[in-house]
Amino acid sequence: MEVVIVPDAKAGGELIAESIAALWRRKPDALLGVATGSTPLPIYDALTAKVAAGAVDVSRARVCQLDEYVGLPVGHPESYRATVIRQVVEPLGLGADSFIGPDGSAADVQAACEAYDRALSSAGGVDLQILGIGTDGHIGFNEPCSSLASRTRIKTLTEQTRVDNARFFDDDIEQVPHHVITQGIGTILEARHLVLLATGEGKAEAVAATVEGPVASVVPASALQLHPHATVVVDEAAASKLKLAHYFRHTYANKPTWQGL
């Protein structure tokens, strides 16, 4: 696993955005898997700036979702589809047909999960998947003890997750859905390149367990150790519990610039 330690979230966002831009330059129709939440926003801001400056052509670029709430009506502003359109698709100027996502309002949710896995496969697979990490080591909505071979499926949100997400629903937990569709760990691992961004001291223990601990379902993100091309980008605070932090700094500092992430 490649670990890159950066000064702050903005530097991490710029680094990852340049990797995405480089991907779209060599493969204009590459499929980018995007995550929601506050952590990846510096990536999207930096990527939007590059597009505005004419540094990358996104006319054929595609994006897809990592997860989605179940049961929200189509067009609900806090659905992850609406969030991705608002934070990524529209700022980048992508067309409506560039977007792939699961149907969280489907009458048959299990069928929608299976259909989404098929859609990703039919699209040629995800070229680069952006990931965040929870303080307990979860990725997507794959909570601790999720199967490392799991596929896109429905998951029940914990009470704490619903409490945490209530701020997006007028601080009313009753509006927060109980279930989500999430790419499974097995689905995530099929992406050609996984890039996890973590910032802040609160993520330090999860990052250390992911990078330096054993591969175990109790830390779902540790499955990234099994991937042939996984990159973990962390700021100094999130790297504070890494025993090999000095080694990671030295390795990346001496990596050929043409190799990128």
TrEMBL record:
Q: Which UniProt keywords apply?
A: Allosteric enzyme, Carbohydrate metabolism, Hydrolase
Record's superkingdom?
Answer: Bacteria
Record-annotated Glucosamine/galactosamine-6-phosphate isomerase domain positions = 10-226
Which gene is annotated as encoding this protein in its UniProt record?
Answer: nagB
InterPro entries referenced in this protein's UniProt entry, alphabetically: Glc/Gal-6P_isomerase, Glucosamine6P_isomerase, Glucosamine6P_isomerase_CS, NagB/RpiA_transferase-like
Active site at 67, 136, 138, 143
For the keyword Metal-binding, the answer is no
Q: Which Pfam families match?
A: Glucosamine_iso
Per its record, how is this protein called by name?
Glucosamine-6-phosphate deaminase
Q: Which NCBIfam families match?
A: nagB (TIGR00502), PRK00443.1-4 (NF001684)
Q: Which organism is it from?
A: Streptomyces noboritoensis
The similarity comment for this entry is: Belongs to the glucosamine/galactosamine-6-phosphate isomerase family. NagB subfamily.
User: Which segments of the protein form a coiled coil according to its record?
Assistant: none
Give the regulation of activity.
Allosterically activated by N-acetylglucosamine 6-phosphate (GlcNAc6P).
In chain numbering, the residues marked as site (Part of the allosteric site) are: 146, 153, 155-156
GO terms assigned for molecular function? glucosamine-6-phosphate deaminase activity
Q: What does this protein do?
A: Catalyzes the reversible isomerization-deamination of glucosamine 6-phosphate (GlcN6P) to form fructose 6-phosphate (Fru6P) and ammonium ion.
The EC number on file is 3.5.99.6
Which pathway, metabolic or otherwise, does it act in?
A: Amino-sugar metabolism; N-acetylneuraminate degradation; D-fructose 6-phosphate from N-acetylneuraminate: step 5/5
Q: Which reaction does it catalyse?
A: alpha-D-glucosamine 6-phosphate + H2O = beta-D-fructose 6-phosphate + NH4(+)
Task: Respond yes or no to whether keyword Hydrolase is given for this record.
Answer: yes
